[in-house]
Amino acid sequence: MEPLLLRLSEPRELLALVPHLLGFQPRDSAVAVSLRGPRGRVGLVARVDLADVADAVHGPQVARSLAAHLDRDGARRVALVVYARDAPGSGERVAAAAAHTLEAFDVPFGGADVLVVGDTTFRCLACDPTCCPPTGHPLSALQGTRAGAEMVLAGSVVAAGREQLAEVRAASADARRAVARVRRRRCEARARARVAGPQHLARWRADSLAAWRALVAAPAGAGAGRVTRIALLGRVEAGLADRRVRDAVLVACLPGAGTLPERALALAGPDEDAEVRAAVGRLVDPAGCVAPGDGARTAAAVLEEVLAHGRRGAQAPASTLLAAIAWWRGDGARAAVLLERALQDDPGYRLGHLLRAAVEAGLAPGWARRQEAGGGVVAGVT
Q1: How confident is the model over 115-170, as pLDDT tens digits?
Q2: How is the beta sheet containing 7-8 ordered, strand by strand?
Q3: CATH number of the structural domain 7-160
């Protein structure tokens, strides 16, 4: 992945860039942008709800948490963009959010450049009339920026809202019922296998992983007939409810995994568990992590297919795996929304909580951290 280099000479360039960095158009949000090094290279981009950071009781702590994340990211300066609708009371919320943030950012960064974006205008929070007119600049001034044009040419697409990042259109009712019948049979088979003994359970798990491999080998519309694909989707949905199958599927998404997923399922012991942990751990290791390629895109498409056909309200495993791939691909915003949905389905889902902690801490995949020194988006906000 070649980094995209942009030099931002004025606030409107940064404002045009932020939605592309997030992947969606923010609303009622405070977005902090880490500017690293003497050239102000853009690093971590962190978004919080405007109501949270403006809250009189909890807002200062939210702002301090933002400051801690940006400080760990190596920020030398910070830009804060506040998105607030032009509605009664919005001015007070903007002022409170800015006050909490500026106080929290004072010691590590010497404050922050604050920009405010409304429904129709944008302005700098602290400037004289020579910088911004009293009513602000029209949002139409953000059109035709170099930053926006470069991101569009690079293939960047901005979703209309944050929730749309994780939107997966449901399959037809008939297809979902057919998958549900297979899923129920497979869940019943798992219950019988657990009673029959470890060898039977290992075979059930191996069959579930084989179904995953078959789906990945023949993406939708390329190969297996519809009836066969429905059966495979049901098998995979049932299989992902088993922790060992879920972990084997995650490992199977990684380059160079080889037969480790199968070996980890066959009466796995401490050695196999250690191998799985090491394989997953390489995702955060700059020395050993590789950037995701076509295999990750295919795996994400299959997981979306599982979600589209699966039982509503019971998709914590598939949503969490899809979030892990989104994070690996550098899309932390989509990962965060997917994890929210996973934990709505199962509030106690441990892998979802672990991954959410990494995303909220601003931890980037290893390949992205390795590239930080060599390139990225460069900003010089004035």
Answers
A1: 999 999 998 887 766 677 778 888 888 887 877 777 777 777 787 777 777 788 99
A2: 7-8, 378-379, 41-49, 29-36, 75-83, 113-117, 121-124, 137-138
A3: 3.40.140.10
